[in-house]
Design a protein that fits this description.
By secondary structure, this protein is of the alpha/beta class. Helix content is about 40%, strand content about 15%. It folds into two domains: about 105-320, Aspartate Aminotransferase, domain 2; about 335-425, Alpha-Beta Complex (Aspartate Aminotransferase, domain 1). Strand 7 (about 235-240), helix 10 and strand 8 form a beta-alpha-beta unit. The longest helix has 20 residues, at about 330-350. The termini are far apart. The protein binds pyridoxal-5'-phosphate (PLP).
């Protein structure tokens, strides 16, 4: 298996950068008990991966869709740097703030943006680091030129963090926000493509839709949708808050103009880590919202969005450690495992005819998020019953829709089977 040092090198980090990480008190790839990874053919591979997380064993976490769990290497990277800042900030010579890693918010952070580019198969010059999805989307909604009467198409199932910056534009500038109704559950990809594409009019200038809908776990056919929109000159933006680390995201293949996402759910990075991507052919059209010295830098537009004033560098060490951990497990291996556990949950629950599903009927449109309920329960009641019976934490998504149940690589098949048994017990 690739060593961490080789992996870091293969994605463009020099030996100098590695020694810099080490100087800041962070892991330099030396194997310690805490970061030894099992080999790919180890029969206990996933149990050993579970040990890379300090998550308590006496309860079960099924709510990655809200916030993820950091592996130990991430926690260590953050806390080491925090300690270093508190003890040794006087080491900072302040000679070259483009390289010195004490505060974030000024550097181009290209070495991290390159890893993000690799994660989503996109040019890192179009990638900017943000705090979360809400501010990434706000930068785009606020920065795009639109005039009164221009239409923005979105759906009735968008998260407020994706939707509300467009509501601001509607109120401020008189653009028209039109919401198409997406069913829950969705029956097929074709149904969604048809619904979205027939909503386009000559006034439609922007399409903003989730890649995975947070309230149903539906993976939308975004490639087909974006192709159809782009053929009509519509600027396409996808909300990927629930995607990276849950499914593979390939921006080149999808062909969208812009994409926003985060690492603090499915990638296991610290909270407060997100990104925006805009196609380098279009990024120059998006005005800067949070402005500092780079506000007009069109050689590296991702830098101007990344530069947003003093921030916490410790969490960027955590973000980098999370991305390295992800690639160490492996792109396919990670996302296949998330889907395998989700499929096991969905097919196990499907044997119980009293369970109602709100995730899509087509298994290819589902991965790590499943949404379901049983008769006689509100979402809050089912959530509480899970805790009382099994110390398990899926999350309520309302009276009707029941719970949203996330499966992640730190979950085990045994945890999934125990969850199914609890539902069966509750629904007799
Ligand atoms: C689809 C979707 N968009 C946006 C958000 C907001 O993300 P953040 O809290 O990172 O801004 C979420 C959060 O759950 C989400 O699921």
């Amino acid at each position: 298996m690739t060593t961490r040092r080789n992996l870091l090198k293969s994605i463009g980090l020099s030996t100098l950068a590695l020694s810099t990480l080490s100087a800041y008190g962070c892991s330099d790839g030396q194997k310690t008990e805490a970061n030894v990874m099992p080999s790919d053919d180890d029969p206990d591979y996933w149990q050993k991966i579970r040990k890379q997380f300090i998550l308590s064993d006496d309860k079960v976490f099924f709510n990655t869709g809200t916030v993820g769990v950091m592996p130990r290497v991430v926690v260590e990277a953050v806390t080491k740097h925090l300690n270093y800042m508190a003890a040794d900030v006087a080491d900072w010579p302040y000679k070259d703030d483009s390289k010195e890693r004490f505060i974030s918010g000024y550097q181009d952070l290209m070495y991290i943006r390159s890893k993000v580019g690799k994660l989503i198969n996109a040019d890192p010059k179009g990638v900017a680091l943000t705090d979360n999805v809400t501010n990434a989307m706000s930068y785009i909604a606020n920065g795009i030129d639109l005039k009164a009467g221009d239409e923005i198409i979105t759906s009735n199932q968008e998260h407020p963090g994706g939707r509300c910056s467009w509501e601001v534009r509607e109120k401020r500038d008189g653009v028209v926000l039109r919401q198409i109704e997406i069913p829950k559950p969705i029956q097929s990809k074709e149904e969604v493509v048809e619904l979205v594409t027939k909503s386009f009019t000559p006034k439609t200038k922007v399409l903003m839709i989730s890649h995975i809908i947070s309230g149903s776990g539906a993976i939308l056919p975004v490639k087909e949708i974006c192709n159809a929109a782009k053929a009509k000159g519509i600027f396409t933006i996808l909300d990927g808050a629930q995607t990276v680390g849950n499914i593979k995201v390939d921006i080149q293949d999808i062909g969208c103009d812009a994409y926003v996402g985060c690492f603090h759910k499915w990638v296991g990075a610290p909270t407060g880590t997100g990104f925006l991507y805009v196609d380098t052919k279009r990024i120059g059209e998006i005005w800067t919202t949070v402005a500092s010295a780079q506000w007009d830098n069109h050689e590296d537009d991702g830098y101007r969005f990344t530069q947003r004033g003093t921030g916490n560098f410790s969490i960027l060490f955590g973000l980098e450690a999370a991305l390295d951990f992800y690639f160490q497990v492996g792109h396919e291996q990670w996302t296949d495992r998330v889907k395998f556990l989700g499929d096991r949950l969905r097919s196990g629950l499907a044997e119980n005819k009293k369970v109602k599903f709100y995730h899509p009927a087509d298994p290819l449109m589902c991965s790590g998020l499943s949404v379901y309920n049983i008769d006689g329960f509100t979402g809050a009641q089912l959530q509480d019953a899970y805790w009382e019976k099994g110390r398990m934490r899926p999350r309520s998504v309302g009276d009707v829709f029941g719970v949203r149940h996330s499966t992640h690589i730190f979950n085990s098949t045994d945890e999934i089977d125990r969850a199914i048994a609890i539902v069966n017990e509750l629904s007799v």
